[in-house]
Design goal:
Diaminopimelate Epimerase, Chain A, domain 1, globular, about 425 residues, 5-stranded parallel β-sheet, inorganic pyrophosphatase (n-terminal core), single chain
Length: about 425
C-alpha cells in the first residue's frame, strides 16, 4: 500500500497542468479523509477544489470536468465502470470492496489489493499525508476518529497501532457508552450503541438505572463514565444487562475507550465521530469538515447541530419501535418512507442491528424516501451471517441500481416507483437464501 501511496504522490506532483478535484464521502470516515487530505495538500502548496457527496452515480461522474485530476476518498471503488469512460487521470484512496476491473486511467490505493490489514480511508489518507511530511503527524487524531467511525477498533493491527501512538491517545477499558467524558446521565439518555430498552431516550429510565447501580451524584452532578471506579463500572454493567437478560452480553459491553485531545479538550473519539457524522447527516458536511480542521465558530455550530441530530435519532428509534415491520426467519424489513430522514436511516439500521432485540445473524433492511428515490440500508446483527451486500446485489442489479458497502453493512438507492417490486424481490431472495442455508 505504501508503494501505491508513493506512486500517487508522484502522480499528483507530475500532473501540474491538471487542476485537482477531490471528491469525498459524507460520513465520518469520508469527512476525516477529506480533512486529512486537504490539509496535507494545503501544506504541500497544492490548490484544489473539494466536494462532499452522499453517493456517486453515473450522472455525477459524467459531469466532472475532463481536464481535472480526479481524486476520490472513501468511495469510487464501486464506480470503476463509469470512470473508465473518463479521459481524466484518476486516483482513488478507498477501502471498500472492489468488484469491477480497475481501468488504466485509475490508480487505486486500497489495502484489499495486497490483502493487507483492513484500514479505513482516513487511515489510508493519513499514511499519504505522513509519507509527504512528518509535519502531518498531527493529523493522526483525525485518522483515529475515522477508524472509530468505520468500526475498525476491534481489528487493531500494526498500522492502526502506529496511528494510535502518533495520536498520543489514552486507552481505557470501560463500558462502550459514549461520550465517556461527559456526565453519565446524559450519556445514558442518548445511548444508541448499545441501545438500552427503557433507558435510551428516557431520562426517568436513566435515573432508575443509576439508582439500581448505586451510582449517586457527586457534588450535584454525575461523574463521567471514564471516572467511575471498578466497582461502579461493574454495578452499572450488571444493571444494564438486567434490563434485557440473555440478550446483552457483558463482554460486548466492555471495550477500549479512546480518549484524545481535540480542540484543547479531552474527548471520546466515539463522540467526535458521532458529531462529525451527525453534521453530515443533517445536511451540513462542510460544518463537520470545518470542525475537523479546527474552526472555532464551526465547532459551536457543529455542537448545536449534533444536539438536534440526537433528538431526530431518538424520535426515529421511537418510530421504529412502534412501526409495522415485514419479518421473516432471520430478517426484518422496515419501510420508514417519509418518517425518517434518508440521511440517518443507515445510522438507525446500525443501531437496531446492535440492539439486543434481534438474534445474531438477523438481516435488517431499512428504507427511507429521498425525493424521487429510496435510500436502502442493510445490516447484519452480530459478526456471523450472510453477506448483505450480495443479498442486495441480487435484488438491485436487475432493477437497474447499484450497491455499495461491505459484507455486513451495505446500501443502495432505488427509484421510488420500484418500491413495491423491490420489497417483494427482497423477500424472495431472503427466503430463498434461508432455504439454501
Amino acid at each position: 500500500m505504501l508503494d501505491r501511496i508513493k506512486l500517487a504522490i508522484e502522480r499528483i506532483n507530475n500532473l501540474t497542468t491538471f487542476p485537482i478535484r477531490i471528491v469525498s464521502h459524507f460520513d465520518t470516515d469520508g469527512i476525516a479523509s477529506a480533512a486529512i487530505f486537504s490539509r496535507a495538500l494545503q501544506r504541500w502548496n497544492k490548490t484544489f477544489t473539494l466536494s462532499i457527496v452522499k453517493s456517486l452515480d453515473e450522472d455525477f461522474i459524467k459531469n466532472l470536468p475532463e481536464d481535472n485530476l480526479l481524486i476520490f476518498l472513501d468511495l469510487a471503488s464501486g464506480s470503476l465502470k463509469y470512470l473508465k469512460d473518463k479521459k481524466n487521470p484518476v486516483i482513488i484512496l478507498d477501502h471498500h470492496e472492489i468488484t469491477q476491473e480497475i481501468p488504466e486511467n485509475v490508480l487505486m490505493v486500497n489495502p484489499s489489493l495486497e490483502n493487507q490489514e483492513s484500514l479505513c480511508s482516513a487511515a489510508i489518507c493519513y499514511f499519504f499525508a505522513k509519507s509527504l511530511s512528518e509535519q502531518n503527524k498531527d493529523l493522526s487524531t483525525l485518522a483515529l476518529i475515522g477508524m472509530i467511525g468505520d468500526n475498525h477498533q476491534d481489528n487493531i493491527g500494526k498500522r492502526y497501532d502506529e496511528i494510535i501512538k502518533d495520536a498520543d491517545a489514552v486507552i481505557k477499558k470501560g463500558l462502550l457508552i459514549y461520550p465517556s467524558t461527559r456526565p453519565l446521565d446524559k450519556a445514558l439518555e442518548y445511548s444508541s450503541s448499545p441501545y438500552i430498552p427503557n433507558v435510551t431516550g428516557s431520562y426517568k429510565g436513566v435515573i432508575e438505572l443509576l439508582r439500581e447501580a448505586n451510582i449517586p451524584k457527586n457534588n450535584g452532578a454525575y461523574k463521567a463514565l471514564y471516572e467511575l471506579t471498578n466497582e461502579e463500572m461493574t454495578n452499572l454493567t450488571t444493571s444494564i444487562i438486567l434490563k434485557n437478560p440473555g440478550k446483552i452480553e457483558s463482554e460486548k459491553l466492555i471495550g477500549n475507550l479512546y480518549l484524545l485531545k481535540f480542540h484543547n479538550r479531552l474527548e471520546d473519539a466515539r463522540e467526535l465521530s458521532a458529531l462529525i457524522n451527525a453534521c453530515s447527516r443533517m445536511g451540513y458536511p462542510f460544518v463537520s469538515l470545518g470542525f475537523c480542521l479546527g474552526n472555532k465558530s464551526l465547532k459551536s455550530k457543529a455542537e448545536k447541530i449534533y444536539i438536534e441530530y440526537r433528538q431526530h435519532l431518538v424520535s426515529a428509534l421511537k418510530y421504529i419501535a412502534e412501526a409495522e415491520k415485514i419479518t421473516g426467519k432471520n430478517y426484518t424489513i422496515i419501510n420508514a418512507k417519509n418518517n425518517i430522514r434518508d440521511t440517518i436511516i443507515g445510522t438507525v439500521a446500525s443501531i437496531i442491528s446492535r440492539s439486543p432485540l434481534y438474534s445474531e445473524g438477523t438481516i435488517i433492511v431499512a428504507l427511507a424516501y429521498n425525493e424521487d428515490k429510496i435510500k436502502v440500508s442493510a445490516r447484519i446483527t452480530g459478526k456471523d451471517g450472510r453477506n448483505v451486500r450480495e443479498v442486495l446485489d441480487k435484488v438491485v442489479v436487475p432493477l437497474g441500481g447499484e450497491v455499495g458497502g461491505h459484507p455486513n453493512a451495505a446500501g443502495c438507492l432505488i427509484s421510488k416507483d420500484k418500491e413495491v417490486q423491490f420489497i417483494q424481490e427482497l423477500q424472495k431472495v431472503l427466503d430463498i437464501e434461508l432455504v439454501k442455508v
